[in-house]
């Protein structure tokens, strides 16, 4: 119940703006055709940006235990290209949103979420979004 309330407040008080920014960059990437992998990542993280509470971004390699093209060296190259073209701008948007949220005491949890999203925006290729419980099970299972 608290997650739902947090997500509704988040969405109404700014999450929609950054989610739409992610989707905007996703559309630009899809238009270029060569940017479809970046566009896919934008829509996954953009949806996460709309409703982040109860979800967590995690490396697909960490989740599945297997490498794929996004978690390989090609993913690193893709993330460098992403950082230069769009990642820095999305990170700055999340940082500005975090500062605005930090100004109020009530907004601190939202500011922390914006900071997490700012980090994700720097290198989203190879990431996926899952419920927090699934992420915890994936991480705990790999430590054994």
From TrEMBL:
The keyword Iron-sulfur does not apply. It comes from Vibrio ostreae. It is found in: Cell inner membrane. The keyword Transmembrane helix applies. The lineage of its organism: Bacteria, Pseudomonadati, Pseudomonadota, Gammaproteobacteria, Vibrionales. Its main location: membrane. Pfam families: YccF (PF03733). This is Inner membrane protein YccF. It is a multi-pass membrane protein. Keywords: Cell inner membrane, Cell membrane, Membrane, Transmembrane, Transmembrane helix. The chain crosses the membrane at residues 7-25, 31-53, 74-91, 97-115. Residues 5-55, 77-127 form the Inner membrane component domain. One of its GO terms (cellular component) is plasma membrane.
């Amino acid at each position: 119940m608290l997650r739902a309330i947090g997500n509704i407040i988040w969405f109404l008080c700014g999450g929609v703006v950054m989610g739409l920014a992610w989707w905007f960059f996703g559309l630009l990437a899809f238009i270029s055709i060569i940017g479809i992998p970046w566009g896919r990542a934008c829509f996954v993280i953009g949806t996460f940006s709309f409703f982040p509470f109860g979800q967590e971004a995690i490396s697909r390699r960490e989740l599945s235990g297997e490498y794929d093209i996004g978690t390989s060296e090609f993913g690193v190259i893709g993330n460098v290209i992403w950082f230069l073209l769009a990642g820095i701008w999305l990170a700055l948007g999340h940082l500005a949103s975090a500062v605005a949220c930090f100004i109020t005491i009530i907004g601190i949890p939202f500011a922390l979420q914006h900071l997490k999203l700012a980090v994700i925006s720097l290198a989203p290729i190879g990431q996926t979004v899952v419920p927090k419980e699934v992420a915890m099970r994936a991480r705990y299972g790999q430590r054994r």
